[in-house]
Known about the structure:
- By secondary structure, the protein is mainly alpha-helical.
- Helices cover 65% and strands 1% of the residues.
- It contains 26 helices and four strands.
- It has a two-stranded antiparallel ribbon with strand order 1-2.
- A hairpin with a 5-residue loop joins strand 1 and strand 2.
- The longest helix has 33 residues, at 557-589.
- Keywords: Membrane, Sugar transport, Transmembrane, Transmembrane helix, Transport.
- It is a multi-pass membrane protein.
- The chain crosses the membrane at residues 181-205, 225-247, 254-271, 277-301, 313-337, 343-363, 436-459, 471-491, 500-523, 529-551, 563-585, 591-612.
Amino acid sequence: MASNDDERRRLLDQGNGSNPWYNTATMPTPHYHHPQQIPGYGGVMAMTQPPQNPVQNPALLEPQMSAHKSQPAGMASMVPGQQMLTKSYSVHAEGALGYLTPLQLGRHELYERVPFTAVFGMQQKERNITKAFASYAADLDTLEQDQIVYSRTNQHLSVDELDSRRTRASLLLMDELEMDAVLVTTPLIIAIFVAGLCQFLVGYNTGVMNSPSSVVFSGHSTLEWSIAVSVFAVGGPWGAVAAGTLVDTRGRRGAMAICIYTFLIGGIIQTTAKNMIFITVARFIIGFASGFSSVLVPIYLGELAPPTLRGTLGTLTQFCLVTGIFVSDLLAFPFATEKGWRILFSVTAVASVIQILCFPFLIESPRWLLGRDRASRQARHIIKKLRGLRYDHEIEIEVNHFVSASHKQACDNNEENTSSKVAFLAMLMDKQIRKLLVCSLVLQMAQQLCGINAVFYYSTMFFEGLIDSPLLGTTLVGGVNVVATYIALLLMENTNRRTLILWSAGGMFVSSLMLVVCLLGYFSKMASLFFVISFVSFFEIGLGPIPWLIVAEMFEAKYVATAMSASCQLNWVCNFIVGLIFPYMQSSLGAFSFLPFAVVLLFTIIFVIVWLPETKGTTPEELRDDIVRSLSHLMLLSDDGSNENHSSSVGNPIDIEWRRAMDDLKQQEEEDMKRGTYNYGFQPINSNLVEAPELDWQTRITGGAGT
Length: 707
């Protein structure tokens, strides 16, 4: 009895000091003897013994082993004396051979389920997927370890031992999967810096016209200034449309060059302007670049970053944008003068020059390169630098992650058309998707028509006569905007999206009404500053970030980029409307100038209550069930350079032969069931099997064609 206990402890302690998730012994399902034990199993055949495991018979895989002579550190075997390979193998429920370790399989799931878009607040979705897969893989590891212990000691693991093993395995895998979020390479840092500067310029140029209205070519009319301010939003949708095409035709890096040089041209014209016409033209060009950036940056960073980092980068770019607004307010103190306003406008050109200096170090998106040529050597070289990989087989695994996820997220099974008109038409033709699209577009309209950019464009003009220092009031609003963005990030972790939007719209609605009351003289005029700040604060916790986040959560990954592009264009159109008409609203409505915004907010509240679905995400249990279903029929792509999909890994003869054998067995069992001669397990298995004629593997694959 003591020897059995020692053996149990030895088996449970295997793997200490090494990472079991790199190990072939922990692959899902190679040791299952009963189909009822296989998660997601839906077949009819029951094998009395598992199929021959390539790990136990390395001769089956000699052609593959010859290509990988070196072996990374950390791949020590959990079972002493067992043959180790650089890749791990498992047999799935339908008989396909899988070539991924649990860690690689988890990253594969993240790639397929997280859209290639960097979106503010998407970290929770990434964590939920990681937890769900870690739970699934830990259950498989625990079950397999229990079977190993039972086979050697004739005793099952106790409940406490099972829980301990499951917890340790789950935490270990979660740590490994989240490692991508902290290991950031130099090429990715440079890309983040350049893309972040683009979003900074979007925010900066949103607020830069707020303060110097009285010193830039003094004597201009209200119409001239309002056109110069709002034409920024006219260029925005045109830039968004152009970006949707150019990011596919010119590549992400080429599109980034167009964006940077457009910012530079607009910044130079605005800095050297001779009259308001030049200012207006420059604002249109900068608006074009800003709309271009709003589409390009989330796609570019989303395709460079690993899945566990995309939400973080989306949050970072949002902070760059609100920081740009705040910096434009701060710089207005020394430079919003008749002699210094050109320095205020020159920031755009200076930032663009910095981006140009960094451009030689900017890398192309490997996803875009692989979409054009799956055998691209440049893509593999970039992936090696981007992920810090050392071995060729690691690079090929990462390539397969990109290719498989791109295929799954393509609306017409062609990853080159992921962001094309085909995707938008597919969304319109699907009744359910069409309803979700309407919801996302209505929220984009509400985001702009609620009047937030009336504050960012004209707060200095609005505060004149209300407080002693309008510029100070504008700067306070910009600072609160940054702080509220951080608070919104914390709230989104644990709060439902509909709840946040209702609180946001409700708070803005009350703030608008109280602002009207203040302007009518019922409260101190200084109180109006407080309600403007509360208006902005409530915006940032809901109507600011949620309309963008909800797109990533409401749609399947393959629709996200298209829905983002459509939302961005409508957002810019509504932005233009508010920027153009608010000065006239203020002059004609006076104290009631915020009342139309209150009406929009009231309709927004009604719409959210009646129509908007909750999108915070599926529960970890639902995600886990979905992962079980998907991994029981795993589809991996060939690395042979073709565009054809192959069930089971790399499509070698062993895989195809095994699948054909399982299909034949399944068909034979179904025929036996119809005849009533099928053995359901109550009789001894008949050993008199009809032997198939001897055929080589090429003949079995082709079915004899060509002979």
